[in-house]
Every structure is written in structure tokens, then in C-alpha cells.
Amino acid sequence: MRTAHTARQTRIVGASAVILAGALTLAGCASSSSSASGSGSGGNASTSNCFLSGSEPSAGSAGGATSGKVTITFMEAMSGGTLKSSLQHLTTQFEQANPNITVRLQESPDYGTLEKNEKDAITAKKAPTIAQAYEGWAADYAHSGVIDTLDSLTDGSGSSQVSSLYSGVRSDLKLCDGNTWMWPFNKSVYVNFFNQQMLQAAGQQVPTTWDQYATAAKAVSRDGVVGITVDPGGKGDLTAAGIWLEILAESYGTPVFDRNGVPRFDSPAAVKALTYLANLKKSGALAVGKNFPGETALGAQKGLFDISSVAGYSFEKDAVGGKFPLGTADLPAGPAKQANQINGTNLVIFDSATAAQKQAAWKYMRFLTTAQSQAYWATNTGYLPVTPAALPLMTSFTSANPWMITAAQALRHSSGSVPVPWADDTQDELSVALANVLTSGTDPKAALDKAQSDAMADMKATQ
Fold first, then answer.
1. In the prediction, which pLDDT does 417 show?
2. Which 3 state secondary structure label does DSSP give 52?
């Protein structure tokens, strides 16, 4: 799970994840009317047609009951430890309950390899029945016409399961055309880890707003202790601090990408967010470092907070080593809202599968998201259950690990990745702005103005 904890992975994070290599081929959700003008508007993009070229979306054909023997293939990257054994266990359970269906797991060692294997299989016309896919991959596949929408399925046999999902998970299943293309699989969010004893000794409460967070961080920042230490990242290095900046901007009122995937890095909300971090640095309540510096400082009792993926809980706990109670809390709210980000992949069905295979795949996918399956999955892997119905089935685990409830509840107000091909390149520009502000003292607005200009150029180059 270490790479799931690696802060440099933003929305493409998971148990062996790596940053996606290469630009996706999707023409994008923004039409050719997109403008490079900044001024907080992010340009003038419209969604006249998400699929500007290539195949039209397929409606899918997985309805009806499965009859006869059928084998389906599942390309996945659950390649190590409890991830591998847990998926194998659930798959065996499914096959025992459905003896006419065989599920062949096609494992890749990491997400970079998984993406390559999927695209190689598509090119060779040997696509799997289903596969894990990040939002950007799914957008690419949808544009190319190689996966099916799930709308007819989720409106029918899966409608009750869709309604039972956390709202943030539900919203992460659609692409910019408004259709449902994905089904949830492995999910995590960001949480605030903290030293409970240090917080209480400073006379502070667990912060529920970013103003309270800053007050607490400043209150402890003396005698070698700093409120929080972050790795600001930079070009090609999007860290947890970069995600924090994105979450802050949304909590101030404007996400860093609009609904069409157009960057809005120079919005007033983004400027306020980066100014907030710059002010923490100037006050001595925020320090910079490398290689999980927040986790290290927290464990050494030299830091109060660390913001990181909940997938890194075991690493935070190991760093603390029982020296004090490790606190976990949802991220505080900003003036506009409480925000968070969902990490992890979804599942897609490939159009080349037979009708019988699609029927079997849909049954298997629904099985993986039942309350019982999700309770087992979350208990044994550390990923979050995608439905609140799983929590009452895992009380023994959650009583000993209350962080699971804290993190799962954040799925109500978390958002997933913007499924556009320029997301990685443009986020790089935001990382550069953050690094320049926190390490060189660059003015936040000036840094974001440049990031917006560079990001719009990146977007146009990708389209």
C-alpha cells in the first residue's frame, strides 16, 4: 500500500499506482471554442459534444439472465499482500455462488503496466471483459468506442445499488457527456492526521474549519515544533500538498477545474487558497521538506498535523509508534463548503465482450459492491467501503479503527478526477506554482496567473 500513500499521486492513486505516462487521445470535454484567457474564468469552454470524433457511445447489452457456462476476464492491479488475497477470496465466493461463471484475474504489477496492458489488448482486439480504469482512461476508451455505457444497467438491475452508494462515489461514475461509464472499485480520500496530546496541550480542539486549523498550527509552532510540514512538489511531482491546494480552492468556492475540465487556477478562490498556505509558511506554522516530511515530523513529535491519503494510515501509525494517540479527522471546511478528493479506480465493461460475458460481468461487478463484499474488502485492504451499508457489518474492525468511519463519511462530499487528457500536464503547472510560493516566496497571484497561462497552453496542445 506504500504507493497508495505516495502523495505525488493525486486522483490516480492506488495500491501500486504510478503517474500515467503519455497523453490520452480523448479529444476532451471542452469544445474547440475553449479560450486561453484567464482572469479566473478558466476560458470559455462548452460541452457541445464530449465525443468530438471517433465512435458514438455504445448503449451496452448486458441485460437479462446469464445462462450456460461463461468465462470473463478482469484486468486488475491488485498484485500484492491483502489486496491480492482479498480480491481472490471475493472472486472465489462469487464463483461458488455462480458455478456457471468463471472469472479469470489478469494481474498487472502496477497501474502503469496495467494501462499499457489494457491498451495493448485493445489494439490486438483482445480486450478483457472488464478492467480497472481511472477516469481519464475511461474517457479515452469511451471516445474510442471500446467500452459500453452502463446507463441501461444502472437504471435497471443496478438501480438500487447506485442509490446506496456514497454521493461522491455516485458522481465519480459519469463522464462529461452525463452518461454512466464506470462502476466503483477501490476508493480512498484524504484525512487530517494529528497528535491528540499536542493539540490538547495547546488548548485547541480538532479543527472543523480551515481558520481553526491555522490557529491550532500556529499555537504549537515553537521550540522546534511546526504545525505541519509538506513536500511542495514541482514539475512532474504532484504531492499531497498539491492536492491540499486543490481541496482548499474548492472549499473557498471554485474547483481548480470547471465541469468541462478547463483549468481555473487563477480564480479568486485559488488565490485565497495559495495565500492561506503562504501565510502559514510566513508565520512559521508550515515547513517544507521531502520524502513524507509531514509523516516524519508527526511521528517525531515535531509536527501537529499531516494531511495524507487514508491509504497511508498504517505508515502514519508506524511513524508514531505508540508514542501518543494518533488522531484522524475529516478535512476542515472552507467558507464555501467542505471538500475532499476521491482516489482510486473504477471498473469498465469492454464492448468487444459477448452479451453473455457482459451479463456475467455485470453480475460480478454488482457482487463486488454489495454491503457484505465491501465490508470484507475494506476490513482487509484499508480501502473505503463505497456504500454506508457496509459499516454496520464491520463494527469489530471500526471499533478498533475509527479512522475508517471518518474517512468513509468523507465520501459524501468528495469529488473524483476530472476525466480529461490534459489533467496531469496542467496539474504540473499548479505544482510549480505551489513550489515557487512555498520555497521561493513568489507572490501567490503571480504564480497562479503564470500557472493558468501555462495550463491553458498545455490543454490546447493536448486537444
1. 80
2. coil
